[in-house]
Design goal:
151 residues, alpha+beta, 10 strands, 27% strand
Amino acid sequence: MSRSPERMNIDEEFRIRGRGASNNDLRRSGRDAMDEDSEPVRSIEGWIIIVRGLHEETDEESLAEKFLEYGTIKNIHLNLDRRTGYVKGYAFIEYEARKEAEEAITDANGTQFMGETIKVDYAFVKGPTVVGDRDRRDRSRRDRSLSPGRN
């Protein structure tokens, strides 16, 4: 099966640039399983999972059929390539309950769908907190010095 070269590959490694990056800092854009230190984050309306490795001819109906067995789907977002009209290789599925999203992740991750092995995980996670790293917005007024002329 041939894939278009324009198809987005979200499992590739990428270099981190900018502040705080070391010279050889490589990270993987995709995760196979939720990291131990990360916690899933609920969006405004529900729990969103990402399904990666989709066949380029996947449609919303067939994807909904597969994932309806885990719970009620609130929304499916299937990104299409503007030029080709084919699926970019991933989709977002939103569930109301965290239990439904967890069941979809544990049961569907690594399964076959339209001849492709799919990877399923939470789309949004809260990363680990770094001890001793304080954000400027967290500073209380007591930590600041007084402006000149004020007592």
